[in-house]
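subagent[fold] <- orchestrator: predict structure for attached chain, return tokens only, no commentary.
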Amino acid sequence: LSITTRNNATGANTAITPALTGIGVVPMRLYAGGNLTCLRDELERGVCFGDNSYGQAGQSYSSGGAIPAGRLVFGGGKVETFAVGDLHACAVVTSTGGVRQAWCWGRNNQGQAGSGTTEDTITAPRQVALGNDGTGAAAQPQSLSAGGSHTCALLTDGSAKCWGLNTNAQLGLGDRTSRGRSAAQMGTALPLLNLSRPVTQIA
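subagent[fold] -> orchestrator:
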């Protein structure tokens, strides 16, 4: 794995090779956010490296700020995709039973990690309670998108749900009420976006 960065002032490109020593991964796809990068490897495992000041690299907060080497975020299930926000990250993971699940970690002061709390720092992935999809079946995420302090999920039936900070109506629910700050706001209480047609992609 080699990542090329560009210095906008000088126009120079620099190749950086992250230290993934001991992890044994072959990167298949990269996902970059604020100061964090996550990847899905050839064995469908998840690895994140970079800033860990709020546990967004999926490691114990006691490990300090930046994590220079890749760290396995998930030990079980199959990682399908990541969403990396400013200070939190999420992943779609297919369980051993074949059920697609949303997991998030990192900064959660606005409920953006979907834990149903405002616990500021979540250092290990936690499953997000998504309730039901538009058909009434148990919601399964197709993909996720993480913003500054909110997160959205495209569900497998084409419906969508969002949670976290909503002061600018960014959750798309027609109000400015934040969601996900308590368990009572998650699961079946988390509303679906009122959309005229199924969603095919979320970013």
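orchestrator: received. Logging for downstream: The chain has a mean pLDDT of 87. The CA atoms of residues 145 and 197 lie 19 Å apart.
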